[in-house]
Design brief:
alpha+beta; Creatine Kinase, Chain A, domain 2; seven-stranded antiparallel beta sheet; three-stranded antiparallel beta sheet; 43% helix; 10% strand
Length: 515
């Protein structure tokens, strides 16, 4: 299942500088709420800037679903402080509101009012709004308010140049893309380690339940939970969309991945066809009736990405210039961090993703993916169960989490020594030593700590106490990277950019979306 990679680790140790220049970026979602815990009914505040064009602060599905976006950086502390500054700025501007610190919102007796995000009356703004209206009509509004953290990661080009084992491939785009697909396949095989360690959504409110096939338990304030679950956000109880299996996406080859994506955007869905593009009054209900309205509707645990040019589709950018970085999408909000993610999480992710790039990565077929999905599901629903096992091969031979974690962490510790090379600290080695203990004692995981709080205090009280705590943190601490003038400048520029986009429209909306 896991091949010996001592030779690869030795190669890394001989070339310690090869891993200098890892770039990262973070996208964090969070709901604006009233102080009583209900959803904010206010529009995205004008003083935060334009949600359409602001570089760092936007909205996701709903008007009250904030999204903070850092620039990419090879300095972890810079990212942490930058994200802190974004939270601090927003805290000062939203007045009498808090930011919900949990991935899954708490809803009282189906009482919620969700306003779909608005982006102005330009063609681009209308398209973004109608796309979200389509998500509501396809999957429901409430599930689209579930929040998470996306972690963007890229290895140095110098690493890929020296790591390229197939010397017949001299095209940089090809061997780098092949390397990232290699990594992605391994993330699917072993990425369940992320919800096990960092999953923080072991409980939900009853509004999310379509049925009770999972036999949830209930505490005194109607918090529904499964005793061993880690991340219900990643389950079919949380957000679900079209399966990558249904689309025949296996990440074996960049061209076939792109073609599968394009096919999904051109193929009509019988289910979504019934919704219709417009209602009886001519109002849009979705952008189209295809399996995917847009590329971004493909929700996977990890995605190949690259920066796109104005008006360019991601699939075209990938085809023309290859994969530039990967986006990890399996992170719940960390409720124990005011910014939703901690430095230790970033360090562990770095180690794990490098490991995924180094170990062998055979191509994946549909049977492999079915087995992989079963492993993920087992960890999501009962990952902390005593003596829990997963399948280690297609023959369905099993291995315990304790056993497989020892194998993985032995490698991670060796990689950690290389990353800590020539530094006065042992940050990567320390996080390895700390996180391996979570497999020996599942009570140390985020999900176990969360569940204890939820059972004793309830989701609502826990969330509100943490939200107020972090509000006080941001109100009382200074900016670290950015200044007030930086925010003021970006707010003004973002509003001006939105006006410019509207002014430059020359097509009708229907011409724009069907061109």
């Amino acid at each position: 299942m896991i091949y010996n990679i001592s030779k690869n680790i030795s190669w890394i140790k001989k070339n310690p500088k090869i891993l200098k220049g890892i770039f990262r970026g973070i996208e964090r979602e969070t709901l604006r709420i009233q102080k009583n815990g209900n959803f904010s009914l206010k529009k995205h505040p004008y003083v935060l800037g334009s949600a359409l064009t602001h570089k760092w602060i936007t909205t996701d599905f709903a008007e009250n679903l904030l999204e903070f976006i850092t620039p990419k950086s090879n300095d972890i502390d810079y990212l942490i402080f930058f994200l802190h500054d974004l939270h601090k700025f927003v805290t000062h501007k939203i007045k009498n509101e808090l930011m919900w610190p949990l991935s899954i919102p708490y809803i009282k007796k189906n009482l919620y009012n969700i306003k779909i995000a608005q982006y102005g009356d330009s063609n681009l703004g209308k398209m973004k709004h109608i796309y979200r209206l389509g998500l509501k009509n396809r999957y429901g509004a409430l599930v689209n308010t579930i929040s998470g953290v996306h972690y963007n990661f890229s290895l140095p080009i110098s690493f890929w140049k020296k790591w390229n084992k197939n010397k017949n491939i001299t095209n940089e785009k090809e061997y780098i893309s092949s390397g990232y697909l290699h990594l992605i396949r391994n993330y699917y095989r072993f990425g369940w380690i992320i919800p096990y360690l960092f999953g923080a959504s072991p409980a939900i409110s009853s509004c999310f339940l379509k049925n009770n096939i999972y036999k949830f338990k209930k505490n005194k304030d109607n918090t529904l939970y499964l005793p061993w679950s880690t991340s219900l956000r990643l389950s079919d109880v949380g957000y679900t969309s079209t399966s990558i299996l249904d689309l025949n996406i296996t990440f074996n080859n960049l061209d076939t991945y792109i073609q599968s994506l394009k096919n999904a955007m051109k193929t009509t869905s019988k289910k979504f066809f019934k919704i219709g593009v417009k209602d009886k009054n001519g109002n849009f209900q979705q952008l189209n009736t295809n399996i995917l309205q847009m590329e971004s509707e493909l929700y996977t645990q990890i995605r190949p990405k690259r920066n796109v040019k104005h008006g360019e589709l991601l699939s075209d950018a990938l085809k023309n210039r290859g994969i530039e970085y990967i986006e990890i999408r399996s992170l719940d909000l960390n409720p124990f961090s005011p910014i939703g993610i901690s430095k230790n999480q970033i360090l562990l992710l770095d180690l794990f993703l490098i490991w995924c790039a180094l170990i062998d990565s055979p191509k994946i077929n549909k049977k492999d993916f079915l087995l992989i999905n079963q492993n993920w599901k087992r960890i999501i629903f009962e990952g902390r169960k005593p003596n829990q096992t997963i399948y280690k091969n297609i023959k369905k031979e099993k291995i315990t989490l304790v056993e497989i974690s020892k194998i993985i962490f032995q490698d991670l510790e060796e990689i950690a020594k290389t990353l800590d090379y020539n530094t006065p600290y042992k940050l990567y080695q320390n996080v390895c030593q700390k996180k391996i203990l979570c497999f020996q004692n599942p009570e140390l995981t985020y999900s176990a700590k969360c569940l204890n709080l939820f059972i004793n205090k309830g989701i609502e009280k826990t969330g509100l106490l943490l939200a107020q705590k972090y509000y006080n943190t941001f109100i009382n601490t200074p900016f670290s990277i950015l200044k007030k003038s930086d925010f003021k400048k970006e707010v003004i520029e973002s509003h001006n950019k939105q006006k410019k986009i509207k002014k430059e429209d020359i097509l009708s909306f229907e011409e724009y979306i069907y061109k």
